[in-house]
């Protein structure tokens, strides 16, 4: 019964990692992250068109008035809208 110990060894061995794990992206709902999103939005061609422009304005206003979570959500929507205009 040579096969049984070999099978147990193979099943108990850790699985080798074949590639790097994806890097976790940590985002915080903070004024700094709001500014980062604004910087990402600025160079996009559709940033000055509606609805991206008004979403960005709302997002910045919310971030500045102490509501970064809502502001970040609006800024992300503005980025998506601006990318659709490309």
TrEMBL record:
Q: Which domain of life is it from?
A: Bacteria
Q: Does the keyword Signal apply?
A: yes
Q: Where is the signal peptide?
A: 1-19
Q: Keywords for this entry? A: Signal
Please identify the protein, giving its name as recorded: Secreted protein
Task: Recall the taxonomic lineage recorded for the source organism.
Answer: Bacteria, Pseudomonadati, Pseudomonadota, Alphaproteobacteria, Acetobacterales
